[in-house]
Write a structure and sequence with these properties.
Elements lengths: L1 H12 L4 H10 L2 H9 L1 H9 L4 H12 L3 H11 L4 H8 L12 H19 L8 H12 L3 H22 L6 H17 L38 H18 L3 E8 L2 H8 L1 H18 L5 E5 L3 E7 L3 H13 L10 E8 L12 H17 L4 E4 L4
Parallel strand pairs: 4-5
Antiparallel strand pairs: 1-3, 1-4, 2-3
Amino acid sequence: MSALVARALAVQLQVHEPEVFFQAGVLQDIGQLVLEKSDPDLYADILRRTKSHEKLVTEETNVLGFDHAQVGAHLLKRWGISEKLCQAVRCSHHAQPQRDDGIGQLDNCVYLSRNLAEFWLSVDGGKVDIRAVAQETEALLGLTPEDFHQTQARIAEWIPQYADMFDVSLNSPGILAALLQRSDECELLLPASIETAEPLSQPLTRPRPVMHQNTAPRPSGPPDLLDERHLLAILKHEFEAARLGGWPLSVCRLSLDTLKEVRERQGGEACEKMQWDAAQYIRNQLRPTDFVSSAPKNGIALVLPGTGADNAEVVTERLRIGSPGLPQNTRFSIGVFTYVEDSPDGCGIEGVRDLLAAADRANYVARVMGGNRTFRYRCV
């Protein structure tokens, strides 16, 4: 896995020979095999006393006077392997300053690959602080958060291919989708909780690819907002993907609490314009892989592929409480429903109209409770 990650970082950096990075990732822990073969009992005892790679390196140094990275580099040098690969293995436990010859990139990609590999091998991210890894990646390699996101998406795409190639069992597509969502939303995109959310000041424009090919039909007009017909077509596609892949799909229905007042004072045309402007504003705050529709009779609908219920609530609350691009008195009632999480055993959800009906029920409850709030519908 470290080799795959190192190669993904190299591709994002657009280096000339990304396969060299893959080779370095494969070889970085070869010293462990040497130590295990040299004294199996002693090394097994060292492994038993350590629960992390960092502690393993420390224990190796304390007991043996050197660590497995140094052993691996020495072995590779004796085999006549190139010095840059030996250097990458030797330095795999420590970040290196950048050098004009670009070798620092190789060293740091191998160094960074370990934590990212641990993240992707777990089912929930493990103990990896993905935000800290992203920041370190930017500091060492100059990759922006956008670059980091693209690298993570590439890794998620490659994992099934490499699992087949090497005949190993890795995480399922559903878990990969959840990990990508966590990396993108929880660590890089969204705040930790609704209570600490800051009002939106910049559009949330980082793309987040879903774990399937999106071939849903698009409207021929302006691409930003969908009409009801195209909403149903896209939602049908996303529902099928979520059902087969086992990842969440959140559907939200938003209504403007002040529409009735605007209609009475200014007429239906002003009412429709207000809703359209609000929908366009929301569209600009979401990711390109999300979908927004606006229909005069049905209000505004959001389709958030791969987004769990908790994160969907965070998104809608941020939209509700932080709308600097809309008139000051704009208030939303929002209903949220998440397929899979909020529908145990299917709960009668058999198609897209069932999804929309659940979101509509949640929206109705939000309005009955006084409006200007988010309500999440759960099947029981």
